[in-house]
Amino acid sequence: MPDELWELFQRVVPEVPARPQGGGRRRYGDREVLAAIIFVATTGCTWRQLPPSFGPSGPTAHRRFSEWSKARVWAKLHRVVLDDLGARGELDWTRCAIDSVNMRALKGGH
């Protein structure tokens, strides 16, 4: 995973509270899990087909994907990426077309 993506992701991923009792299994790092999630999303394989070389198991990656989805991490990451591209001048909003079929306008201009 590119370092640039990881840096942006770190801005939006929620911190995990420390386990008060201690012990238990080590939680896989967010970067390892994110790489596994990206692999599943881009290859179309199932969570169970996730190669062991990623570290976290398919169920672990899926569980974290669900946690992050509930926390709206993906929407936040999308916004951060767009803002970052815009700040660097790599995104030109003037050239973005709006499809009127998908755009709703409220009556009365509200």
TrEMBL record:
Domain (Insertion element IS402-like) ranges: 1-78
InterPro entries the UniProt entry points to: IS402-like_dom, Transposase_6_like
Any Pfam family hit: DUF4096
Name of the protein in its database record: Transposase
